[in-house]
Amino acid sequence: MSPVPLPVLPLVDLLARLGEQGECRYDPDLHTGPDVFEVEPIAERRARVDAAKDVCESCPVALECLEYALRANPAHGVWAGYTPRGLAALRTQVRAEVPAEVA
Prior knowledge:
By secondary structure, the chain is mainly α. It has helices spanning about 10-20, 30, 40-55, 60-70, 85-95. The two termini are about 15 Å apart.
């Protein structure tokens, strides 16, 4: 499987594009969850994360969002269909697949 080339934009431009074209702009709480002072039951969190991932599937800037998330390493939220744990696993997988001479 060959890697998908990611666009290389400054982070500020990536954020602008996400804010202007991202499907998450219609319901940002879906992707970020409640604030730190509110308890979200596990079942509700799982349902919210699954719904956010569904929104990401049809997002026109999902690749840019993935690039941002891989570069910014967010601590919470759903980014291009990935949670922070999923992004960490993706980074590990990519590192394992990149030949030593490229890395």
